[in-house]
Every structure is written in C-alpha cells, then in structure tokens.
Fold this sequence. Notes:
Layout: H1 2-15, H2 19-33, H3 38-45, H4 50-63, H5 82-94, H6 101-112, H7 118-127, H8 145-151
Amino acid sequence: xxxxxxxxINNAYKKEKDSNVKERILLVRRVKIDxxxxxxxxxxxxxxxxxxxxxxxxxxxxxxxxxxxxxERSGRPPDVPKDVMIEIRQELADSNTGWxxxxxxxxxxxxxxxxxxxxxxYRLLHNWGFKSKVSKKKFVNTxxxxxxxxxxxx
Length: 154
C-alpha cells in the first residue's frame, strides 16, 4: 500500500502545474512517505508555519490529493454573465484595429447595460491577456543617414 501511495504522490507532484499545490504535495511526501516531522519540514524546508503544515495535512487526510488544491472562493457574483464576457473578449480579439478603454467600456455597456469603471476595464483586459498599445517614439531631431555618416570617425 505504501508503494502505491508513493507512486501516486510522486506522479501527482510531477504533473502538477500550480506551484502552491506542488509545495503542498511536497509537504505530504516528506511527512507521510519520508516520515519527517511536519513542523520541521514546514519551517526549515518550505519556510512556512506549523499551522500551515497541519492545515494541509488535515485536508489531505480528509480529501486526498484533491484537498490540496485551492477551493473556489465565494464573493460577489459578476454583473455580466460569463458567456457574454467571452463573446465581448472574442470580438476584441478578432478586431484588427486598436481600441482604448473607453471603446471597450462602451462596447460592454452597449451589450450588457452595465457600466464599469475604467480601472476595472484595464483589469479585465489584463486578465484576458491584452496589452495596452503604445505608439512608437519618434525623435523629431534625428539626423539623416548622410549626416550620421559624415559625423562618424574614420
């Protein structure tokens, strides 16, 4: 049984992408398989508190590997349904022209009737993976290639 548990935990550690969950799996491996003390592993190896270690070990005992993952957090539900936001995001991604936050704000308002603050628009765009478009700097007093060649030492 220990061999089976060892392979399951090692495979879960290798496949996991989330660094926080990986750290928790490592804690479980050190305590359950390597038989080390939870408090010393947490404090010395992972730079965490004893309370943190005992919390995650308790969740592992109750729920297994799924208990080491973060749970959904409750909060205020969004004003705009998720499918509508996906549609707006796709429309922005398909657009070949640039847009600014006002255009995005008006697009969301036109489709949903909800008006977001400009800071929240920037937050949404960042979460969607969009970057702000900044024009390239052009120097007004740049010398021509002929003048640059004349100035260069030979």
